[in-house]
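User: I've been going back and forth on whether these two constructs are worth ordering. Before I decide, could you fold them both?

Assistant: Sure. I'll take them in the order you sent them. The first construct and its structure tokens:
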Amino acid sequence: MRSLLVSVVILSLLLIGCGASKDYVAQQIQQSEAKQSAQISSLSDKTDANAQQVAKLQTLANEISAKADKAINKAKGFENYQIIWQGEINFDFDSYTVNPTAEQILMECGQKMEANPSSVIEIAGNTDRVGSAKYNYMLGMERADAAKRFLSTKFGVSLYRMFVISYGKDKPVAAPGETKSASKNRRVTLTVWGELQ
């Protein structure tokens, strides 16, 4: 009898343990499903945000493409340009002041640009060999800018029609041994480009 009683107690304990175990397993499954649901919801939100970002980027790409096409269309036609006037002005040593002789040449240049409203000009500053390369690049740019300011002030030439560059002492027209080579190299070259007629 006693062994029967022990068996019943053991069986009862096992049944109670199984019930508790089932509840624990059910609770763990429920927590896992809740976690997965939260992760799926988070991924869904991120996917939506990414889709919106992709749509914005596509719109931006389309706008940039349209602007690029517009710029290319504006640039087309420059292949029909040719040199319609060239000139050169000289400067004193270590100076970028436009002198009276240079003014006359710039007046001629300005008149040519006025007569050809779609023309553009390349203004290239140059120097002699005295001084460092860095200083001469800056001086060449000051000389080119002086010519640009003159054309803008006297003739109202729009800045977008004028392109300046400095070669410093890199592009001499006269070799060091030539007579007055330094003064020949202290110059700005002016090249006006216009449409073929």
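The second construct, handled the same way:
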Amino acid sequence: MSRYEVRPPGDHEPIVGPTGLLLRPIRASDIPTLFRWRHDPEVMQWWDEPPVSEAELAEEELEPDVNPCWRFMVEADGRDVGCIQYWHPYADTDSDWSAGVDIYLGAPGDRDRGIGTEAVRTMLDYLFEVKRVHRVTIDPDVRNARAIRAYQKAGFRLEGTMRHNDRRADGTYVDTQYLSILDDEWPDAKERWLTS
């Protein structure tokens, strides 16, 4: 058990990107929207098994865990369009140099518009500039070409395939593509972002 106070996934300040995209901490009132999104066939294809109830989802999304993970609603133009999270060990541990990110866009009309890439870039800006991590990773299903392109556009580099790295609700194993970006790669990726 960590010697640090275990904090709820929504216990975080909002993150505002340089272009105005907002990542705001999730709250209980978001559960119905998240529940609906997690049952969208596109999200279900790449995300975990959908929750059976809003109560189950609330426990998953809002309850503290010894493995720290912070969750945010992605707001574009004042509308909730998706969910992004990062995991990062509590400060002052031997492993606080690395973080991981996951994201999905819940509203079908908001996909393929660059919002996901923008949200990932906003999160990377926070992780590198504020949290001062050395490395950020993400591991989408190898078949999720749209996501992999978005992550590469944000600055991630392909490292390799992790065989049977995830298991779906039906028991089948899937390979994931492992991508990362390092702190010394972020300045160039950020400059491309802000000047494009």
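Notes on the second construct follow. The chain has a mean pLDDT of 88. The chain has one domain: 15-195.
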